[in-house]
Amino acid sequence: MADQENAVRVTRLAKRRAAETMVQHLQQPNKKRVVLNEIQDLSNVGINQIEDKVFVSEPLRPKCKQIIKRKVKSSDDPQMCSAYVSDIYDYLHQIEIEKKRRPLPDYLEKVQKDVSANMRGVLVDWLVEVTDEYKLLSDTLYLTVSYIDRFLSVNVIPRQKLQLLGVSSMLIAAKYEEISPPDVGEFCYITDNTYSKKEMVKMEAEVLKCLNFEMGNPTIKTFLGQFTKIAQEDYKKNNLQLEFLGYYLAELSLLDYNCVKFLPSLVAAAVIFLSRFTLQPKSHPWSLALQCCSGYRLGDLKECVLIIHDLQLSRRGSTLTAVRDKYKLHKVSFRVCLIIVQMCFNIVFSFGNTGFILQRYKTMTTWPFMLGNWTRTSFLAIFVFG
């Protein structure tokens, strides 16, 4: 028992040291950003631009609803009831595209003066560690990041308050999602008492006011659960590797500011595409059932898939290791999955397999685009001929 208590103390001390390091990183002097235009009314900044920079799926047609109804297997999940799954998705999609629930796709450039994409990534990476430390639900993490992005879209804050915003947002999300959420004192402790309880409660109130107390929001995980069920259609029983890989890639997407512009449903669809392609490179990763369920065609996923793929191969966010470390130790089955991931990409992304991919998909509907990166030739061929 004493050994367990000592282990907990050591772990929490490590987290506090990590928090201290993060504060020092955020407070390092940096070049001032050039502000092109002063912002007059933050509450209305860029609201009319949101729909131009995010992708909106098409309404499900009656035929698609019938396809989904046939494909959805029996499940104890009330959100996957075959008779209502399409209606549930339509409702969630209508909520996610509401302007009041969407962050600005370029708030760091238009609103913030002292916060960069790298700082945001460091913050989210640290929050992943906090989530793991307190055994919080992943739903709490997704909501936390959503609150942070929405708050930063309408409020200018200095970098010294960024960590305070992060833990205050997690405090709200934990109260919303968890049965026994950590109290304010524990969140102060995890920041090495950088902020007082009074400061945290004050920031909590500001975030709630910004959210207009509308804390419920469809997240990437909300849609990922639905799409995963549809994606299991090719398996006689549930494929845990597909499920684990999907959750892994989805959490990686939280680290990258470039994913903010995408709707949660589109990120979830891109994650499913990439997971299926990784585990079954010889099969087409985007089925008719997935297209009907999500409302996204293959071409809609291109940009998001390439960003998440870069995260998967550590071309982006290579210094942000919390998610990778978390899933390395998660379960033996997932560690095996990670080995398969690397093997698949070593094969599929080799230049010599281009002809095979082209031949396999040459009979499908053409969707042409050019990208001058020969290392991705095989992968992009799916988009070209998908």
Structural account:
The chain has 386 residues and is mainly alpha-helical. Among the domains are: 137 residues, Cyclin A, domain 1; 131 residues, Cyclin A, domain 1 (Orthogonal Bundle). 60% of the residues lie in helices and 0% in strands. The chain contains 19 helices and no strands. It is globular. 40% of the residues are buried.
Helix and strand topology:
Layout: H1 2-26, H2 50-53, H3 62-71, H4 85-96, H5 107-110, H6 117-133, H7 138-152, H8 162-177, H9 184-190, H10 197-211, H11 220-231, H12 240-255, H13 264-279, H14 288-294, H15 298-312, H16 322-328, H17 332-348, H18 354-361, H19 377-385
CATH homologous group name of one domain: Cyclin-like
CATH topology description of one domain:
Cyclin A, domain 1
Q: H/E element string?
A: HHHHHHHHHHHHHHHHHHH
**Average of the residue pLDDT scores:** 73
**What is the CA-based Rg, rounded?**
21 Å
Instruction: Please give the alpha-carbon distance between the first and last residues.
Output: 57 Å
Low-confidence runs: 5-10, 29-60, 335-378
CATH class category of one domain: Mainly Alpha
Q: What profile does the largest beta sheet have?
A: none
Helical fraction: 55-70%
Keywords: Cell cycle, Cell division, Cyclin, Membrane, Transmembrane, Transmembrane helix
Family: Belongs to the cyclin family. Cyclin AB subfamily.
Pfam family, one: Cyclin_C
